[in-house]
Amino acid sequence: MAEQDVLTAEEIDALGELSNISMGSSTTALSALLQNKKVTIDLPKIEVINRSQALDDYERQCILVHINYSKGLEGGDILLLKPADVMTMTDLMMGGDGTNTSGEVSDLQLSAISEAMNQMMGNAATSLSVMLGRAVDITPPETDTVDVESIKIFENIFATPDKDMVKVTFRLKVGDLIDSTMIQLYRLTFAQNLIDIFMSQMKKDEEARKAKQK
C-alpha cells in the first residue's frame, strides 16, 4: 500500500467520530422497527484492508446492503450483516420473538432488512448532514446474500478501481438477542473525501466559535 494511501491517526479519529455519531443516531429508528428493543451500535474499529479481505469475518454467507448517496456525497458504502442477525431482526419486525432464525434468509427477509437499513441509514444521513454542513441523503438500499467464497462476485458488485477499502467494524446489540458485529465498507478515496469534508467543516465551526468570543 502506498504511504500516501494510509490514513493518518487524525483522519482515523475523524472517521471514527463521524461513524460513531451517525450510526449511533440511527439506533432509535431501528429500535422502533424491532418492537422497541434497545439497540446500540458503537465502538467503531477502523482499518484499511485489501478488497479481497472484505468478507474474511464471515464463515459462509453474509448479507450485503449497498448504500448510495443521492445528495451531498458522491458514491456509496456497503454494510455487511450476519445472516443470523438479519433473521433475528426481521423476525422481530414481523411480530415474532426474535428466535425464528432457522434456514436461509428469504427474499421476504431481505426486503424487510432493506427497509430497516433504509430507515436506519436515512437517520444516519441526517446526522451526517449536521456534521458535514451540507444536506446528505441516500437512495433506497440494494440488498443481497453473498457467498463468502465468491469474493469475485462481491468485487463485481462493488466495482471500483480502488484495491484498498476502509473497514469500520461496529458492535451491534439488540436487547438480549444480538451481541454481534456489523461492518461498513468504504472505498478508500470515498472515505478520504468524507474525512476532508468533515475536517474542513470542523475548522469552519471552530473559527466561527472563536469569532463569537471576540
The succession of helices and strands, N to C, reads HHEEEHHEEHEEH
| Principal-axis shape | globular
Mean pLDDT across the residues is 89
Helix content: 40-55%
Strand content: 25-35%
**Radius of gyration (Å):** 18 Å
Point out poorly predicted stretches: none
Number of strands: 7
Number of helices: 6
Backbone structural class: alpha+beta
Biggest sheet layout? 7 strands, antiparallel
End-to-end C-alpha gap: 46 Å
How would you characterize the overall build of this protein?
There is one protein chain. It is globular and about 60 Å long. Helix content is 43%, strand content 27%. The longest helix has 26 residues, at 107-132. The protein has 214 residues and is α+β, with helices and mostly antiparallel strands.
How does the SSE layout of this entry go?
Layout (H helix, E strand, L loop, with lengths): L8 H16 L2 H7 L5 E12 L10 E11 L4 E6 L1 H11 L13 H26 L4 E2 L3 E6 L3 H7 L6 E11 L3 E10 H26 L1
Summarize the structure.
This protein is of the alpha+beta class and about 210 residues long. The chain is built from 6 helices and 7 strands. It is about 45% helix and about 25% strand.
Q: Which properties best describe this structure?
A:
214 residues, alpha+beta, 7-stranded antiparallel sheet, globular, 43% helix
